[in-house]
């Protein structure tokens, strides 16, 4: 199952163009076994393209480097790769005309499971994904969340050790998203490797061991959520005052602060640690100043994402967090 390095997925110099449009411009990826890797990127960044290449659905451009999945060379042995993986695409693979149970049995047939084992696996997975009651109903009558759960249940029929999930929670309500997160965590606890694409930064923050941000065909940054957050400045402490005189003396005591005379606030660059906060408070104390409000801002993945993939939306553009925007389908 493993390569000598213990990577479930590794790719070097992955390239893909459509006509003269370069979608993936030589990207490197390594996903250790039993971990969650999240590929982040705005619409059209190439996330689905990457998933399709790594899961053998389309081929990379000639001249791409080696890709190994579950220890198998993707180019030399795509059949072995297919046997090791499961894929839940961005768009549902559920057949709406047949029931949830029939969809599951169809998958069992595709995996050549003996009839009895197929039935047992289908029943187990339907139960695990809370679809027992719905199992005998046509899948077209399922809600989006139920369809997504059925999609993942179908992916698990062959007991894959490496799973690709392309935007598994887009369009799900908060409760359904949390259920999906729980399912993904349980998979990883069982030793499965998960390659996840998402537009939800909180999702990557919550789930992923490592995150890569795809931008302009390249990996703009890669690391743990904490490492990515440290990449960008922007951490600060904000002090707010109601009395202009107090504000003025505070500005004098903290000359490095950026003042906002209209709002009576001071913004001090800081990584937000206890020690840094204490230093600021000590200086205010010794000047006999008390702030009316103190807030600590640590950069989150949103800040990282905007810093890496383009300017922060200006007035008039949509400045909503990505989870509040229209899902991209
Ligand atoms: N078969 C194709 N022919 C031509 N261009 C394509 C094809 N498939 C994808 N593309 C282009 O490749 C780019 C990347 O598409 P891809 O679907 O990988 O993006 P994505 O990151 O998954 O986006 P989203 O978040 O919207 O799902 C887009 O510009 C898309 O138009
Ligand atoms: Mg996509």
Labels describing this entry:
single chain, 329 residues, alpha/beta, Rossmann fold, Alpha-Beta Plaits, 2 domains, 6-stranded mixed sheet, 4-stranded antiparallel sheet, 24% strand, disordered C terminus, binds adenosine-5'-triphosphate, binds magnesium ion, ATP hydrolysis activity, transport, ATP binding
Task: Outline the structure in words.
By secondary structure, the chain is α/β, with parallel strands linked by helices. It folds into 2 domains: 177 residues, Rossmann fold, CATH 3.40.50.300; 65 residues, Alpha-Beta Plaits (2-Layer Sandwich). It is built from 11 helices and 14 strands. Strands 6-7-8-3-9-10 form a 6-stranded mixed β-sheet, with helices on both faces. Strand 1 and strand 2 form a beta hairpin. The longest helix is centred in the middle third of the chain and has 16 residues. The radius of gyration is 24 Å and the shape is elongated. The protein binds adenosine-5'-triphosphate and magnesium ion. Adenosine-5'-triphosphate binds next to helix 1. The site of adenosine-5'-triphosphate has 13 residues, from helix 1.
Structure summarized in a few sentences:
With 329 residues, this protein is an alpha/beta fold. 35% of the residues lie in helices and 24% in strands.
């Amino acid at each position: 199952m493993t390569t000598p390095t213990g990577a479930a997925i590794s790719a070097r110099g992955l390239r893909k163009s459509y006509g003269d449009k370069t979608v993936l411009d030589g990207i490197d990826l390594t996903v250790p076994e039993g971990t969650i890797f999240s590929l982040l990127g705005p619409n059209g960044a190439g996330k689905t393209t990457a998933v399709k290449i790594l899961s053998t659905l389309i081929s990379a451009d000639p001249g791409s480097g080696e890709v190994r999945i579950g220890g198998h060379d993707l180019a030399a042995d795509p059949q072995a790769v297919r046997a090791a993986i499961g894929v839940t695409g961005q768009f549902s693979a559920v057949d709406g005309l047949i029931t949830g149970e029939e969809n599951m049995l169809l998958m069992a047939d595709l995996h050549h499971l003996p009839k009895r084992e197929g039935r047992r696996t289908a029943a187990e997975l339907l139960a695990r994904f809370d679809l027992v009651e719905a199992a005998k109903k046509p899948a077209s009558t399922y809600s989006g969340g139920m369809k997504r759960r059925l999609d993942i249940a179908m992916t698990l029929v062959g007991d894959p050790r490496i799973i690709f999930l392309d935007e598994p929670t887009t369009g799900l309500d908060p409760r359904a998203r949390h259920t999906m997160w729980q399912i993904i965590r349980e998979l990883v606890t069982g030793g499965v490797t998960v390659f996840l694409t998402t537009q939800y930064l909180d999702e990557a923050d919550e789930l992923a061991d490592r995150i890569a941000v795809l931008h302009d065909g390249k990996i703009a940054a890669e690391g743990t959520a904490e490492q990515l957050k440290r990449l960008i400045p922007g951490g600060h402490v904000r002090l707010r005052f109601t009395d202009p005189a107090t504000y003025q003396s505070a500005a004098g005591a903290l000359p490095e602060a950026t003042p906002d005379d209209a709002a009576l606030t001071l913004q001090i660059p800081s990584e937000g640690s206890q020690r840094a906060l204490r230093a600021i408070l000590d200086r205010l104390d010794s000047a006999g100043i008390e702030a009316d409000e103190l807030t600590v801002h640590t950069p989150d993945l949103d800040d990282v994402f905007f810093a890496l993939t383009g300017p922060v939306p200006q007035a008039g553009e949509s400045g909503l967090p990505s989870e509040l925007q229209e899902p991209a389908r």
